[in-house]
Write a structure and sequence with these properties.
By secondary structure, the protein is of the alpha+beta class. Helices cover 28% and strands 23% of the residues. The chain contains 15 helices and 30 strands. The strands form six sheets. Strands 4, 6, 7, 9, 13, 14, 17, 18 and 20 form a nine-stranded antiparallel sheet that branches. Strand 11 and strand 12 form a beta hairpin. Helix 6 packs antiparallel against helix 7 (530-545), helix 7 (530-545) packs antiparallel against helix 8 (549-565) and helix 7 (530-545) packs parallel to helix 9. The radius of gyration is 31 Å and the shape is elongated.
């Protein structure tokens, strides 16, 4: 289906400068100065020679940073950190004098980001006269960037900006005697118009004007400064001074007619609304904008906001209810004879949340019954394992309502290491789950809202995950993080009948983020080590969260294959002799996978047997490693191996999940060493590796909710349980080695 919205342009959109007495001028004659800081030495101060001879003695407040510190402008990059935190000295950073600037039209531009922790009394930005300073006597034109506001303008419009967000600042300075007319507006003589563009939006917004001061001189420099008592932190990149008018609107795609097209939402729930934005350059008079889609939609506002002569605008489109899938919006620009001039496309993912659930929810990795049991244990049984796990969780930084999350457009990860972006990514998913669990236990809506904000903000901000080293690292990092993110989201979306009230549009944004991670993770599912095991759990979790049985089954099948292929009959598994923690990555992930599968009616992973053995393989592996942890057996890695397994259980926090299943639910008696390890050692020294799900004592300690019955009554029990979840004719899978076909391996009961 094609749905159209048309807009006729009544004026020529050729970007030009019209100056009285001079006629038609070029928009952009030349670049007078540019600095992206990529040639500077990271960690050092800015060089005083070359580009920046006007550097004051306070240069110690200037540092070159790169992506290992942060990515304030969204991509790996070098930038300048201005940190004037002293109270007795000022900071001055100016270029060499530009002889071509006075008496002309120039655009001074830079990327900047002001952190909320910076504060202060303002950073002065502007033009300084020959041999002078950006002080009262020495400047030609100046204004302040000050705590989210551009001050010092003689007239203002949208002159505020958000802290902690990146912007590009444009100063279009008409230092001539006549008004300047260009595609985006008119600049008075001896005046500068200031524009702000949030990076990524592609559309500069007029902030206000500032009049020139003092007499014109033979040359100018451009730069920044703070004064003695000012305290200001600012990050800066891509500083340029160009002749003419250079805004984003100055045709970023080169010469000739062109257009860009963008959508404000990467994803939307069926029936939801998206905002489409476009811009056009050098379009002939009478051009028509036409928007079409390959899905049903309606345009809800029926008109374009803003000045149509500028060749840009936006319109809202509402998707058909219950629609699911990828939606492609197309923008076509045609001339007066209906010939195509230029075109662009943008894609949006639509999610349909109207269908009844096909799987039990929540399930990652706690069911609704388990959550209710956990709450009762914490509130009414002060000596329970759940209460001990609760107290431990509350002692972490994640638990505080003042926890500050970091939604990231681009997450940067490091192979065999970490950086600030990766740490924030991992901490945020743990914090979201921590507050979701606190909401379940306490009912305090502040924790619900905190968890929801972390999930929603990440969903709206996220676009990509990149690696600073080997590219496939993003597959592993995605696989590690996704189950934690989804465990939090699963609670927020489904607990207590969905009483959290998570808006479908926000769920869709998070869903889109999760789907991107799942797409990366699943690429590693065939790897015969912890990568494959982590990837299989990520796929299982996404299938459960998205109510997609086929996706869940794909992950479960992969996990069963790995449990068979990378484990041996004695319990040794892949990477046992790599070190003492990588094999545990697989072990704890198998445990979480088995619990999730059980919550969805599959006993395969807990009960699967291989190679003619009657005992489940996961049981054999747990006993094998428990013997290593307690020093009962010697590792198979040889005398020169540089590691020791004794006591090395204390890095991880989910052995309680397996203990709860085999001991509390099933009452088995063939895990004596594992039982001893958990009861006498691990519970006294629980690990906290944030790559994986945490707080298993809280979620699964003493939690025998719906313990399995004897084999002869299993089918009746299963039918009752799944009927309670609204599932008819449940197809229960039988594990390998289920010789009598009752859904349970022979030796379990």
């Amino acid at each position: 289906m094609n749905t159209r919205f048309s807009l006729n342009t009544r004026f020529s959109l050729i970007i030009c400068l019209v100056v009285a007495g001079l006629g038609l001028l070029s928009t952009h004659a030349s670049t007078l100065f540019e600095e992206d800081f990529e040639a500077e030495a990271v960690g050092s101060g800015l060089e005083t020679s070359g580009s920046w001879p006007g550097l004051s003695a306070s240069a110690g407040f200037l540092t070159i940073r790169d992506e290992s510190t942060a990515t304030p402008f969204g991509t790996p990059n070098q930038y300048l950190a201005l940190s004037d935190t002293g109270d007795t000295r000022g900071l001055l950073l100016q270029t060499a004098d530009m002889a071509g600037a006075p008496g002309t039209v120039t655009t001074f531009a830079l990327d900047f980001r002001e952190p909320s922790s910076g504060g202060g009394d303002g950073m002065v930005v502007g033009y300084a006269m020959t041999g002078s300073d950006l002080n009262t006597a020495g400047h030609r034109l100046r204004f302040n960037l000050d705590d989210g506001e551009i001050t010092g303008l003689t007239s203002t419009a949208a002159n505020t900006y958000s802290l902690d967000l990146p912007y590009r600042l444009y100063v279009v300075f008409n230092d001539t005697d006549s008004p300047l007319t260009h595609a985006a507006g008119t600049v008075a003589a001896r005046t500068a118009d200031v524009w702000l563009e949030e990076l990524g939006s592609g559309t500069p917004v007029f902030a206000g004007s500032v009049s020139a001061s003092n007499s014109q001189t033979a040359s100018y420099s451009i730069g920044f400064r703070s004064f003695n008592a000012s305290l200001q932190t600012l990050w800066v990149d891509d500083v340029t001074l160009d002749s003419g008018v250079v805004l984003t609107d100055s045709n970023p795609q080169g010469g000739g007619p062109s257009c860009t097209f963008a959508c404000s939402h990467p994803a939307v729930a069926g029936g939801g609304t998206v905002t489409l934005q476009w811009s056009g350059w050098q379009l002939p008079e009478g051009s028509t904008f036409e928007i079409t889609s390959d899905a049903g939609l309606i345009f809800s506002n029926g008109a374009v906001s803003g000045d149509t002569t500028a060749g840009s605008g936006q319109v809202d489109a509402t998707l058909t209810t219950n629609f699911s899938g990828s939606v492609t919006f197309s923008l076509a620009v045609r001339d007066g004879s209906d010939a195509l001039i230029t075109a662009a496309q943008v894609q949006v993912e639509a999610y349909d949340y109207s269908a009844p659930a096909r799987l039990p929810h929540p399930s990652v990795t706690s069911s609704s019954g388990q959550l209710a049991f956990m709450k009762d244990q914490v509130l009414n049984h002060p000596d329970s394992l759940a209460k001990a796990g609760w107290d431990a969780m509350l002692a972490t930084p994640y638990a505080s309502l003042s926890y500050v999350h970091t939604p990231q457009e681009t997450v940067s990860v490091v192979p065999s290491g970490s950086n600030a972006s990766e740490v924030a990514f991992r901490n945020d998913c743990q914090a979201a789950r921590c507050h979701a669990l606190q909401w379940v236990v306490t009912g305090n809506p502040a924790h619900r809202d905190k968890a929801m904000a972390i999930l929603t903000d990440m969903g709206k901000a996220f676009r990509s995950i990149v690696s600073t080293g080997i590219a496939r690292q993003i597959q592993l990092e995605s696989a590690w993080a996704l189950p934690v993110w989804l465990s939090a989201a699963d609670i927020l979306r489904y607990h207590d009948g969905g009483s959290a009230g998570w808006e479908p549009a926000d769920v869709a944004a998070f869903d889109h983020f999760a789907r991107i991670l799942k797409g990366h993770a699943e690429q590693s599912m065939t790897r015969q080590n912890n990568w494959g095991v982590s990837a299989a759990l990520a796929v299982m979790c996404y299938g459960a969260w998205s109510d997609a049985p086929a996706i869940f089954q794909t992950g479960l099948n992969g996990q069963l294959g790995l449990l068979d292929s990378i484990s041996q009959t004695d319990g040794e598994i892949a990477e046992t002799c790599r070190d003492v923690w990588h094999p545990q990555y697989s072990l704890v992930t198998w445990v979480d996978s088995a619990e999730l599968a059980r919550n969805l009616g599959h006993l395969d992973l807990y009960e699967a047997t291989f190679d003619g053995q009657a005992t489940p393989r996961l049981v054999i592996i747990l006993e094998y490693f428990s013997n290593l942890f307690l020093g009962n057996t010697t590792h198979p890695c040889g005398g020169s191996w540089g590691y020791d397994y004794v006591g090395q259980y204390d890095r991880f926090d989910n052995y309680e999940v397996a203990y709860n299943h085999y001991i509390n639910r099933e009452g088995v008696n063939y895990l004596p060493v594992f039982s001893e390890m958990v009861e006498d050692f691990w519970r006294n020294d629980v690990g906290a590796d944030a790559h994986f799900l945490l707080w298993s004592r809280l979620t699964h300690g003493d939690n025998a909710h719906i313990a399995l019955p004897a084999p002869e009554t299993y089918e009746q029990w299963a039918a009752e349980q799944f009927t309670a979840f609204g599932i008819t004719e449940p197809a229960l899978t039988a594990p390998v080695g289920d010789f009598n076909g009752d859904g349970i391996s022979n030796e379990l009961h």
